[in-house]
Design goal:
A four-stranded antiparallel beta sheet has the order 1-2-3-4, with no helix packed on it. The chain has one domain (3-89). Helices cover 33% and strands 14% of the residues. By secondary structure, it is an alpha+beta fold. The chain has helices at residues 3-23, 53-61; strands at residues 46-48, 70-73, 78-81, 88-89. Strand 3 (78-81) and strand 4 (88-89) form a beta hairpin. The termini are far apart. It contains two helices and four strands; from the N terminus they run αβαβββ.
């Protein structure tokens, strides 16, 4: 097959996957009684922190379709992007 056609198909599939994730609200804000942006672990309010360079690269690779902002929870220590399943505990 032609290399251009293969590249075009791969890019098209990637864009379709991004739109599918967006349609199913992956990484959306979790709302609770006391705030509009709750921690995925303890439902306490999240605070914005500065993004690192990898977060900005991910934001550009996904064509800025998702809200890729970094948050931290002061209650349980969760830190990361909202769409991440894994979490990091802050060292005290």
């Amino acid at each position: 097959m032609d290399r251009f056609l293969i590249l075009f198909i791969v890019i098209l599939i990637y864009i379709l996957i991004l739109f599918t994730l967006r349609f199913f609200n992956v990484g959306r804000k979790i709302s609770c009684n006391n705030c509009n942006n709750c921690c995925p672990d303890c439902n306490f309010s999240l605070n914005r922190i500065k993004r690192n360079s990898i977060d900005q690269i991910i934001n550009n690779i996904t064509f800025r379709m998702f809200d890729k902002k970094r948050y931290t929870c002061t209650e349980c220590g969760w830190e990361g992007l909202r769409w991440e399943d894994n979490y990091k505990l802050k060292d005290n």
